[in-house]
Amino acid sequence: MTCHAGFVYSEEFTTYRFRDDHPFNQMRVVMTKELLEAAGALSEKDIIAPRLATEEELSLAHSKKYIEAVKKAGQGLLTEDEGMEYGIGTEDTPIFKGMHKASQLLVGSTLSAIDAVMDGNVQHALNLGGGLHHGFERKASGFCIYNDGAVGIKYIREKYKAKVLYVDTDAHHGDGVQWAFYDDPDVCTFSIHETGRYLFPGTGNVNERGLKEGYGYSFNIPIDAFTEDESFLSVYESAFREIVDFFKPDVILTQNGADAHHFDPLTHLCSTMKIYEAIPKLAHELAHEYCEGKWIALGGGGYDIWRVVPRAWAQIWKVMSDQTPFQGSLPVEWVQKWQKEAPVNLMETWHDPPDAFKPIPRREEITEKNKKVLAKALQLIHNQKKFNSM
Questions:
Q1: Set 134, 173, 193, 262: catalytic member
Q2: How far apart are the first and last CA of the chain?
Q3: For the chain, what is the domain count?
Q4: Distance CA 315, CA 203 (A)
Q5: Tens digits of per-residue pLDDT, 275-296?
Q6: What residues make up the domain containing 234?
Q7: pLDDT digit string (tens) for 39-67?
Q8: Is 134 an active-site residue?
């Protein structure tokens, strides 16, 4: 199957930059685009130019007072006390010049992807500049100022009246999006992430199920630290298939953080590039089965920008456009260019070498823990199906 897909991109994505030593670095989007171009998989005809989100659109998921605070911060006019109230000026989310406009662009890029798919211009759209899933209505959090996923889903609900399944495979729980729709039965959120026992934001337990009319439409699978490929993918596929069949969405929106990889410096999961082939393949398959192909994919976390993120995110586009994941060696010219910038030795192949990582001694124990968490989640899905059929 050859699908018509769009790649949302602007060089201005790099203006979302807290400081030089901050782990959130949008150069990873530039590197991914150049990797795809060097591999002959992306051309100018595929590019969708993003727009800025309007303040009215931002207010779909953020309070007007918060938006004003972000604007003031980017102009150097926000006091320290005001900043603390809104989560701005913290170690995670420092103030930088022009932060409102830079954040507007990331939200607008997600809205551009949504319109392209929902208006029928493309079947799938990829916006690697988005996926900032920790932002709240009145507060910045976890490197995220505006929550483009939350704004985007509200936008879909208002403009297109479509049921949305949000799937988050970032190693960190997709808390901001979950809480934004915790009482909404027309938005189902599913997050598979490292347990919050050791990792920010500390939420995402199996028993976080929703509120009021939204009860039963929030699903979380917190997997154990040091989880490897096989266990991750088993849990992901089993839960995703059950949830999509239960909810039957009109459109799927995925957040594709690339921080579950063994190399990522901020998490404790131990996956390899294998999961980054499988994650988009399943999303693609289920989008066609349930949503007439309507699939919007966003970026997200991913803090080894040299060895992991470009390879992982390039696979999403390859699956979107022709379903055949990359194999073999990376383009030599791309490796040579970016090796001059990188503080580590770049990978030269799409897959990780088989001996790249030491075996995890607790593999069986971790796998068994994850099976038990999955079983609890699946039982909740089955219970909700029975309740809805009564």
A1: 134
A2: 39
A3: 1
A4: 29
A5: 999 999 999 999 999 999 999 9
A6: 5-389
A7: 999 999 999 999 999 999 999 999 999 99
A8: yes
